[in-house]
Amino acid sequence: MRIVLVGPPGAGKGTQAAYLAKNLAIPHVSTGDLFRANISQGTPLGVKAKSYMDAGNLVPDEVTIGMAEDRISQPDAEGGFLLDGFPRNLKQAEALDGYLKDKGITLDAVLDLEVPEDEVVKRIAGRRICRSDSSHVFHVEYKKPAREGVCDVCGGELYQRDDDREDTVRKRLEVYHTETEPIIDYYKAQDLVVTIPALGEVEEVTRRAMAALGRDE
Ligand code: AP5
Predict the structure, then answer these.
(1) What is d(CA 6, CA 180) in angstroms, rounded to the nearest whole number?
(2) What CATH number is given to the structural domain containing 22?
(3) How does residue 166 score in pLDDT terms, banded at 50, 70 and 90?
(4) pTM of this prediction?
């Protein structure tokens, strides 16, 4: 399956993507994680991306589109992929459509995770991620690690993302409403959007998403 996950910052896209990708046996492709990996390795791409991310802005399309297409053209994504955080504006959505058309393939669904804004703010404020692998995500209240400050998966140090500061979060939410929300209508016109209520236990949200995809867990 080829799936796009969309939703505001902190909606739980990364959390759900990890479970859905495992259940569906497809790679989880997160442009945010790809940028964070480049930042921690100190690559030129990471240096460029960091200034945009820390300000809560989108990294420019000319960098992002190539990086995302390069990732989904890898052999492990031949049978499908779960895109988390891409596309994030209309230009990226059109570029993805062009890429898929060239390959003669299509998306199966766009899952829109719906969460009230006050909950999103709580989720972001308490989020802690692993310095060794930013796809290992915890929460000080909702998903506590067994040992405070230590990743349950790999033992890495848990920290708060630089772009999870309150002023940056406000900017990211604004960018989400102006730049990203329009892609929901773009995909509704292609009859691809399924809205998933994303309040509640993580496992329950996963069940809703799997049911929406017509798959039992
Ligand atoms: P990115 O990393 O994609 O961030 P985001 O979209 O803002 O989303 P988040 O990672 O903040 O949240 P999430 O929805 O994944 O929530 P999570 O599962 O962690 O992008 C970061 C930046 O990179 C962007 O601002 C931009 O600068 C750049 N970028 C990335 N892609 C780009 C693109 N395509 N174009 C241009 N720039 C791009 O959950 C949040 C917390 O809630 C966690 O602590 C989790 O444990 C908890 N939680 C999750 N689900 C539940 C639940 N059901 N109940 C209780 N707690 C929950």
Answers:
(1) 8
(2) 3.40.50.300
(3) confident
(4) 0.95
